[in-house]
């Protein structure tokens, strides 16, 4: 069902010097499925992360935050699917720590140098023994070229693996970057992805990477939504292995701007892939809100449109029932919105002019755009200069089926 | 598909002295369908209304507010289905005024004494000629016992008509009350129903009725949600015809408290009926949030649970995938929520204790409750004494079908 998301080929993905990845099949929820992943980092790497704002954040998320605060040298990540280890209280923390301890022992590092991640069903105890048993197989599989299998190993209800690689010359040096992500429901800004990992061989100051991670997340993973449900486990991690010969120590460094652009392109690609493979998605929608008095109100309007089940089902039906978009703009929360200044375009078709139906709008023009698989909605609020772009998908029968059947 | 909502019988509904109702078939969207309704009120009646907060509020809503502010003596309501007259700009206002003018001419009253209502598709011009042509038939049909047909005449995607009547002795006098409402999608607090009308033969001061209408709406129509979409046309109207011999002039009046209770019971019944007939509904859920530090945070949590597509699809599947409820509590927006004090019950089953899975919780107990058609979810936030109850329904394949097909 995914929208313009193509199957992955191993040759699409570049190895990143200093980063190795190894999977295992632990049988957490299903047999014969890659469901455990270890990522190792060479000493001297910088790692930064942003995490879910959900107050019921999962045990591994809590431990990630602790470890990132405690140590400057993260050396390994361990990820399992099939169980979120969320809503599990004190035993959940104990379980996540047990996994970190086991990884540390196996790799001869300290537990604080390990970041744990879990994704899957909430409120069920983590099958720790299965995961720990599988770790040695994951270690044995560690290779530079592990990104391809990693993309599979972090999937849950995703129908296709999601990954992106690129390399480019920055300040005279070849810099490489690879990333993987997974969706595909319980997707909402702050954070938007349950899991996203990007690795690069550049070197960068840890504080600078922290700031950059937040900026990039806001314009990529925090700009997508599938169903408006903010997960308990969302995590986005950037790993910089400092192997290519560039070390960025300030925003003034010649490599900073091109590196940031490269990072943003990678994160946006991975985020959009999550939307393309949103549960039951048949349409990919770009929602551009401009003319806002401030960024916040552009976000409100973008999210109202992107979350509306009525808008999303109309897109599923390819029905230009565009009054539903006006209704969403109207309830988004801008108290003093003067609707007489609002314009709405569907693709290149001007639908609503000055708050009402554009006299020149013809249903068949709307229908033509609605029939496409990739659709852009543009709203001009007529209040100022701020703008915000979001990406979302439609709402289909398949979404209901997937989420009604998820545990069976 | 409606949940425990029974077909209406004409004998269920009491006539209200001083109020007459008459329908017509104008062929607005479909032929042979009751789609226009006139309600007339005897001189000396009090009328009060609350309306959608959507900034794209429909032309008739704007005119209702004007007329209620301009005149003390509303004498007639005119309602059409099949077209919302929303997102229609200046021509929409002209159209709604033309309908009021026609009703006024027909009934020999002034246009300011008429309140117009429309419900249906947004962004399409109102077929004024069809409506005006049908008005004389509606006038010819005016009867005291018109509530039964009125319940049908205001339906759109509703599968069953919604109405409620009761009479009781208040301060030694028999007081009667009848009401009708319609849903069934684009339903969200502020306002929750697209249309709700209650008539009673009591007399009441206009200002007092205004205050009472807001209070009652908050605990009934503003406490339900189907899909979180706030309509452009929501309106809730109370009409008091002053025919039974009681006139309430202050909150100290002996009849005030019993009348308020009667009104609340009627409004809650009509509101819950909208949920029972929510688009595609197979389950009716009562969500009680207690232990909040204030009412606002109880609302946030109740709405987060009630809006979550993941929670709603799990209920559709009768799957006790209850971690999704914890996730919704966690992202509801209480920044300082200590999840270790949160308790969750499904019916009488204690699912989450102190923020984690209750050690005594058994899946089969959760499954037993989930299999029922009416389910209560209770959340204790462990922070204070405030509480709030909401009503919602599940999210099924049928919802997608209805909204993907709505215009066809």
TrEMBL record, chains A, B:
The record marks 192-193 as: Cleavage. It is an enzyme of class 2 (transferase). GO terms for molecular function: L-glutamate N-acetyltransferase activity; L-glutamate N-acetyltransferase activity, acting on acetyl-L-ornithine as donor. Pfam families: ArgJ. Substrate binds at residues 156, 182, 193, 279, 403, 408. InterPro entries: Arg_biosynth_ArgJ (IPR002813), ArgJ-like_dom_sf (IPR016117), ArgJ_beta_C (IPR042195). One of its GO terms (biological process) is ornithine biosynthetic process. It catalyses: N(2)-acetyl-L-ornithine + L-glutamate = N-acetyl-L-glutamate + L-ornithine; L-glutamate + acetyl-CoA = N-acetyl-L-glutamate + CoA + H(+). The record marks 119-120 as: Involved in the stabilization of negative charge on the oxyanion by the formation of the oxyanion hole. Keywords: Acyltransferase, Amino-acid biosynthesis, Arginine biosynthesis, Autocatalytic cleavage, Cytoplasm, Multifunctional enzyme, Transferase. The active site is at residue 193. It comes from the Bacteria. Its main location: cytoplasm. Belongs to the ArgJ family. Catalyzes two activities which are involved in the cyclic version of arginine biosynthesis: the synthesis of N-acetylglutamate from glutamate and acetyl-CoA as the acetyl donor, and of ornithine by transacetylation between N(2)-acetylornithine and glutamate. Heterotetramer of two alpha and two beta chains. This is Arginine biosynthesis bifunctional protein ArgJ. It comes from Polynucleobacter kasalickyi. The lineage of its organism: Bacteria, Pseudomonadati, Pseudomonadota, Betaproteobacteria, Burkholderiales. The gene is argJ.
